């Protein structure tokens, strides 16, 4: 890496535009599209050598890719659906035929995905869980989408973790495990890492203006957020959108500093400086916190960026000649209480011409592998697959892994998390502009915050906001 002085020096190209957008993820690219459509000149600065941010096609080493980051889209995710359509990218149903695997206390069992109550894991704890879910459902109704800090009980709900609430509102270890694995699969965090209010809002946001959000829509494959996948991978959407924007997007341009003053903003990246009337910072709060702002930001925003950490997640992928689990009437979806992987999906191509199993390595499980060798990580992933899907799962043709917590320009994933006290103490600063600096990114969205849909919604919202301000 070049020495710090060289990195921060405003060297190279000098550009000017109405608006400079920092980050070419879905949020930044959508904002650029809309501002250009409104007749504004735009420069997008992207740190990586590719667009898409948390949407990424993971190379499998044989010239093909699998979803390394975002993967699914589901009902009420209208804005990513519209963009996907606009970009001419097709979707197809996530494989969901047969039974799911449930692994708990050393025992493997199967459960139907099409039971009367949907996919209900075979655990006595589900009765207890249903009562807890009823209580959660009532609380979710009382959370204003996009402004959880305005809930009547915001203080009470933001003063406890989801872990404390789930322990006081369930008796069985089964219900507790299922609530923990819900948080793990949606947020790649442990229940103790997030406030109750944050989880309630995440579920309230899993809908649209006509359909209130719910935990069911968040966790389900059928009729839920995991319903569909993208032909050719979801990264086709940002790749095609960025291609349309052409030279407006500059890659390998990590922004180091943003200076504001009477003139507007001066944004300095490696090799390029942009002067503009307004800036949009389109990324998670934690990653925005790496940028040096002068003069300094208001404390509520500066401290929000210290308090909104990313989840810890890796995706581990095994490639097989065939999706052999389908022959055994298995969906490829599993929940496990032990091992490196706690949640799996069938990531095979739409024609099933080969099999791809994907497992999430979440929170402590991924940090535990920090100093493990590549072979040890592979062995841990395959041990999980073997336990869940039998010996054939232990002998893939190849494996691949994407660790988001090691990514400098993501810092983890899938989304920024709010521990207790953050939404009520700092929440409004998520979206509130600081002079000519505006904020986008899925974390700022009302509906589907945390998802690609939320990223697109945030880009559309910030474009309107900036256009009005200009
Ligand atoms: C493992 C994983 C699984 C997921 N699964 C799903 C899913 O199934 N469905 C779904 O809808 N969503 C999923 N998500 C979430 C989804 O990927 C995100 O919500 C969405 O992509 C966020 O888009 P964004 O534009 O807000 O932020 P990002 O995609 O994070 O974009 C920010 C951009 O800013 C760039 N950047 C950062 N710092 C700088 C800087 N200083 N200068 C210049 N550029 C900078 C980054 O490189 C990046 O390109 C998943 C995410 C992960 C990690």
Automatic annotation (TrEMBL):
Its EC number is 1.4.3.4. Residues 26-466 form the Amine oxidase domain. The keyword Translocase does not apply. Keywords: Oxidoreductase, Signal. It holds the Pfam family Amino_oxidase. The keyword Oxidoreductase applies. One of its GO terms (molecular function) is monoamine oxidase activity. Its cofactor is FAD. It comes from the Bacteria. Belongs to the flavin monoamine oxidase family. This is Monoamine oxidase. It comes from Actinomadura algeriensis.
């Amino acid at each position: 890496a070049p020495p710090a002085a060289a990195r921060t020096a405003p060297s190279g190209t000098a550009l000017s535009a109405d608006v400079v957008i920092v980050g070419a993820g879905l949020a930044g690219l959508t904002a650029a599209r809309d501002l250009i459509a409104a007749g504004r000149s735009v420069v997008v600065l992207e740190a990586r050598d590719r667009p898409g941010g948390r949407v990424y096609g993971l190379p499998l080493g044989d010239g093909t890719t699998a979803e390394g980051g975002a993967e699914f889209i589901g009902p009420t995710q209208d804005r990513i659906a519209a963009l996907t359509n606009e970009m001419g990218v097709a979707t197809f149903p996530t494989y969901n035929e047969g039974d799911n695997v449930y692994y708990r206390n050393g025992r493997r069992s199967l459960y139907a995905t099409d039971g009367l109550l949907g996919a209900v894991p075979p655990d006595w704890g589900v009765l207890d869980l249903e009562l807890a879910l009823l209580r959660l459902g009532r609380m979710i109704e009382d959370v204003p989408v996009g402004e959880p800090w305005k809930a009547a009980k915001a203080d009470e709900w933001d003063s406890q973790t989801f872990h404390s609430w789930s322990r006081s509102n369930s008796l069985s270890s089964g219900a507790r495990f299922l609530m923990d694995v819900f948080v793990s699969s949606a947020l790649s965090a442990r229940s103790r890492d997030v406030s109750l209010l944050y989880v309630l809002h995440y579920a309230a946001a899993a809908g649209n203006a006509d359909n209130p959000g719910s935990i069911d829509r968040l966790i389900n494959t059928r009729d839920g957020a995991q319903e569909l996948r993208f032909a050719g991978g979801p990264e086709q959407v940002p790749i095609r959108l960025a291609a349309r924007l052409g030279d407006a997007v500059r890659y390998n341009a990590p922004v180091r500093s943003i200076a504001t003053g009477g003139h507007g903003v001066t944004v300095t990246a490696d090799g390029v400086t942009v002067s503009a009337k307004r800036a949009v910072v389109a990324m998670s709060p934690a990653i925005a916190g790496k940028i040096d702002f002068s003069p300094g930001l208001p404390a509520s925003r500066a401290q929000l960026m210290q308090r909104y950490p990313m989840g810890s997640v890796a995706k581990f992928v095994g490639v097989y000649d065939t999706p052999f689990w389908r022959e055994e009437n298995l969906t490829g979806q599993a929940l496990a209480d032990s091992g490196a992987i706690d949640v799996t999906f069938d990531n095979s191509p739409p024609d099933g011409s080969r099999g791809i199993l994907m497992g999430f390595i979440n929170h402590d499980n991924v940090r535990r592998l920090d100093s493990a060798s590549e072979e040890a990580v592979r062995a841990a992933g395959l041990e999980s697959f073997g336990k869940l899907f039998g010996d054939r799962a232990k002998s893939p043709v190849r494996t691949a892994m994407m660790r988001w917590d090691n990514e400098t320009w993501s810092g983890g994933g899938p989304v920024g998390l709010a521990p207790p006290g953050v939404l009520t103490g700092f929440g409004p600063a998520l979206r509130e502009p600081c002079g000519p600096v505006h904020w986008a990114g899925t974390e700022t969205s009302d509906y589907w915050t945390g998802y690609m849909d939320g990223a697109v919604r945030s880009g559309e919202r910030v474009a309107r906001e900036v256009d009005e301000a200009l």
